Structure of PPM-type phosphatase domain-containing protein:
Amino acid sequence: MFPSSCHYLAFFFFLSGVSCRNESSSSPSYLLLPRDLAFDSTTRLALQSLRQSPNTSFLYLQSLFPHHSLSQKQPYWNHTDYGTLTLVGNKGGHVLEQINQDRSLVWLSETNILSGVMDGHGTAGHFVAEYVRHDLLRRLWNKTNDIEPWLHEVFLQTDQAIPDELAHHGGCTCSLVYQSGEQIYFANTGDSQSFLAAAYGDNEMHVQIMYETRLDKPGHPDEAQRLQHAGAHVTGATEEDDARVWATDPATGHTSGLAMSRVLGDRHHTAVIADPSIQVIDLKAMKEKVIQDYNLYRTQQCQQVTIHADGSSDPCPLAEKPEAVHFFVVSATDGVMDFLEPLEIAQTMAGYLYGNQGHPYLGMEDLLWRSTHLWQQHGQYRDDMAIAYAKTAQV
């Protein structure tokens, strides 16, 4: 039987008390959780204040950055370097009956940054997403030097740890970005996405997507083949619906189709796995690629040669290296990504991060309301949304 809401309430009171041991007891760390634009009037007031004046009062900034200190020290992190926001969807019924099943986080230590999103689905999806967020952070303290296999194991351990009473009634995606020095680790399960963007240029800002995670969908050729080898029933995409993998819950006999090939939870979907796709990016190598791409762009733009009266000419000037290459990462659930491309999101955030458009939180707010408008053009339904960003180390 599905557990009562009282049971869940007690369960998450317990979760909220999970203690986090830091890698070093003297090393400070912070956890930043999102505020919901629909339900949190204080956040809307803070954003309005930021729009009116970039030098808004510290009181308003505190409402946007409700850090949960995990240590005694209180270091200063630039509050424009990272952030996260969320917005509950509209799935029918009264607005106060809506449940936001999306979760996100930004965790900072003196040496590492973890950011990401989780998108819950099913009747217990929000509880699964909340459990995953807490459990991943708890396992963070046992980090090893071999980060790639550690991240893979963390996903599997968290998936196995989800209580059956939750995992049989829902699941969630998980898209994380772990920054360790000049190395960026992307770990993704499901159809939320994370990407690395570069912003650079002289008089004109150029924004480029350097890497984006794969969507784990049953229609992806590799995933479809894997699911079929596992004996799963997969239906292709139609005009009305996405490709789905089907399974029957042995306890209830209920058959459901999942639009993802990898998730955490959803335990009766035995062919659907929690294994993340992991990609490691070296920022120094990525900077060299940015400069090569920029040199090629400048050369292609130089198509006219200046010819003087004496017949001499000025050759096309050599491309110059951009004065600075800025990297940042963004994670977002499909509520944001369904109608916005990664490049559009990156261009918006770059304008706030490195331009003069205002505080980056206004950029996230802009993206959430823009997504809302696009959802409304397609009907009454609107998915939950969550977004998180973080600047990377400078190289």
In short: Confidence is low (pLDDT under 50) at residues 1-25. The first strand starts at residue 29 and ends at 32. The chain has two domains: 30-52+66-214+275-294+326-391, 217-259.
